[in-house]
Amino acid sequence: MDIMSATPGTGLGEMIRTWRDRLPPSAAGLPVARGRRTAGLRREELADLAGVSVDYVVRLEQGRATTPSASVVASLARALQLSTAERDHLYRLARLVPPADGTISDHLPPGVQRVLARLGDVAVAVFAADWQLVWWNRGWAALLGDPPAAPPRLRNFARDRFPVDNGPALPHSRLRPGGGTPIALWPVTEEDPDAIDAAVVSDLRRATGRFPRDSRLASLIRDLNAGSSRFAELWATGEVAAHREDHKTVDHPSVGPVTVDCDVLTDGDSELKIVIMTAVPGSEDETKLRLTTVTGPPAAL
Description:
By secondary structure, this protein is of the alpha+beta class. The protein contains twelve helices and six strands. A six-stranded antiparallel beta sheet has the order 2-1-6-5-4-3. It starts with 11 loop residues before the first helix and ends in a 6-residue tail after the last helix.
């Protein structure tokens, strides 16, 4: 018998329930209804934040599901705002190896999550060091469209930026060649798209030095080198840099064109990229941007 599983309060389901009970909904950016009986997150709230079914959360907490996948564990750790040590403990309880040094982490530390929650409806998304989309808020979904329910591996800005060569032309809101999905569901134009292409590629090269043992990053670069001549051309230059800012115009289906400043902040050693979309204060674009949040994410075209 597993000694720890027989020790009260130490099993996988019990720990998930303990961490859920301690996290107030306000810390997760959720509204707090008057007369709420539960101090922590409800099961359905955790399920929604982690992108899993309520039934699966119930089965985990009741011990009827004991081997969640690594992607589910990573999502639960983010939703529960676990520290790095707690995240690693959750992996071990699920009989998985925690992310090692030299590999990319999708984990959002509690401090980052507190900052994100306090940004309100500002359009924000978080990408991992390999430009994998790991989190977005309501403002982001309202401006760019709610990212589709595609496999997490395909929600990658670099894959979206460099689609497979010679594939059939598809509308912006549909699946692209190779099964990828756009990060933005509506057409987006940029002041200098060539500069952004180069910045993304050079940023990925920088990531290879920071995370030399990451298999996901290595697979991404192999795929893009083989499938996109544009990526291969830029990769061959050997440039190393970081992507910091640009300006975009989103052709929003409800409010029309919205021009925004796109700023990229990086979080410490994990190299998380916090992407923030804002408009010039007092401008018509700021009014449109606020209106997208009021109306909510429109349906994909």
